[in-house]
Amino acid sequence: MLLHILNRAPDTPACRQALSALGPADRLLLIEDGVIGALPAQRAAFPGVEGRLYALHEDLEARGLLGRHADGIQVVDVEGFVALTEACERTVSWY
Amino acid sequence: MHDETHHGDLLVILRHAPHGSSWLREGLDAALVAAAFERRVTLLFLGEGALALLEGQGVGPMGQKGTAPTLAMLEMYDIDRLLVEERALRDYGLDASMLLLPARPVGATEMAEELAAHSLVLNF
Amino acid sequence: MASTEIYRYLSVAETQIPLDPEGYLVNRHDWSETVAEALAAEEGIALTEAHWEVIRVLRDFYARFEQAPAMRPLVKAVGQALGPEKGRSIHLMRLFPGSPAKVGARLAGLPKPTNCL
Questions:
Q1: Is the Cβ pair A23, B85 closer than 8 Å?
Q2: For A28-77, how does the pLDDT look when each residue is reduced to its tens digit (9 = 90+)?
Q3: Are B88 and B98 in contact (CB under 8 A)?
Q4: Is the pLDDT of residue B1 over 50?
Q5: CA of C61: which chain B residue's CA is closest?
Q6: CATH of the domain at A90
Q7: What whole-number percentage of chain B has pLDDT above 90?
Q8: Would the CB atoms of B115 and A23 count as touching at under 8 Å?
Q9: Are A65 and A37 in contact (CB under 8 A)?
Q10: What is residue A88's three-state secondary structure?
């Protein structure tokens, strides 16, 4: 199981490529501009990732998106980020 | 053919077209260094990175070196496992006859398998 | 990488050939067999036909790929051009002691190979 880290908004090649390369058990963590994908209106951009989609607390908060994110997205802080990387074999960054 | 025994240690993902930035060159350099040190390397041309495989590339408008000679050199470093995203070939209207090297088209499922199968993945 | 910094000059038949800090030619087009002999003399190497055929392989490699080869592709290129007996590290080590890829590139008038230590 890999952890994919995406720091680009949903409407980018990086996002599309991350989703193409995502394995069936892999997890996807949204950071930086990636957290824009956490908005409920963007849920269609992440098909089939239910339960495996995470967003970084600090980056949501900085953008005023905390509390506005879609249900089912798991919000993690930096400690949670570290725990995620430890739970996964390796990480792959998409930028 | 999908052959498990040919899975290299290092997977280098190339996501940028030639000339527009240095990402493609840097990715290829990383692959060459790894191969020079006897690591097995697989290249995955993803998204606009697929354009790096297009035949007939030249130097830049100011005479900057292109990456096509480096692509031709991969074979001398025994880098011969080349994959290209099926969807990128479709998006850009490319087919095998237009490519300067034989790269095997892969779909999303197989890409995910490749990422999982390599012990090191570098994304450029 | 090719360096453009002139560090010193090599005297060859009354001509001053600029060299970079690592002893590679600053201008690739300054190369000639006489220059190769002078560069080899600095390394304590007297060039024989066995050296020249490898130098030709190196120059051909650069003409095709625009880069000097690291050791692994050099061994392969020599093997392809000169046969498996010569396409071996030990043969190249005897001809160009130390680092055959680097010493060979220097004598062949190529930039320093980028993908090797």
A1: no
A2: 999 999 999 999 999 999 999 999 999 999 999 999 999 999 999 999 99
A3: no
A4: no
A5: B73
A6: 3.40.1260.10
A7: 87
A8: yes
A9: no
A10: coil
C116 is catalytic: yes
Percent of chain C scored above 70 by pLDDT? 96
Helix (H) or strand (E) holding A94: strand A90-94
For chain C, the average pLDDT equals 94
Question: Would you say C8 and C38 are in contact if contact means Cβ atoms under 8 Å apart?
Answer: no
Facing A23 at nearest CB: one of B48, B116, B120:
B116
CATH fold of C8-42: Dissimilatory Siroheme-sulfite Reductase; Chain: A; domain 1 (3.30.1420)
pTM, 2 dp: 0.91
Q: What are the residues whose beta carbons fall under 8 Å from the beta carbon of B86, sequence distance 6 or more?
A: B105, B106, B107
Amino acid at A68: R
pLDDT band at C83; cut points 50, 70, 90: very high
CB contact under 8 A, B85 and A20: yes
Q: Nearest CA to CA, how far is C103 from chain B (Å)?
A: 17
Give the pLDDT score at C13: 86
Q: Is the pLDDT of residue B2 over 80?
A: no
From B79's Cα to the closest Cα of chain C, the distance in A is: 11
- Between CA A22 and CA A92 the distance in angstroms is 10
Q: Is CATH 3.90.650.10 the right assignment for the domain spanning B8-123?
A: no
Model pLDDT, residue B6: 43
- C49-107, what's its fold? Arc Repressor Mutant, subunit A (1.10.10)
The residue annotated as part of the active site, out of C10, C50, C93, C116, is C116
Q: CA-CA distance, A73 to A63, in Å (whole number)? A: 16
With CB atoms and an 8 Å threshold, state whether B32 touches C72.
no
For chain B, the structural domain boundaries read 8-123
CA distance C31 to chain B (A): 21
Q: Domain residues for A79?
A: 2-94
Number of domains in chain A: 1
| pLDDT for residue C24 | 96
Residues of chain C contacting residue B70, judged by C-beta atoms under 8 Å apart = 65-67
**pLDDT value of position C4:** 78
Strand partners, B11: B42, B121
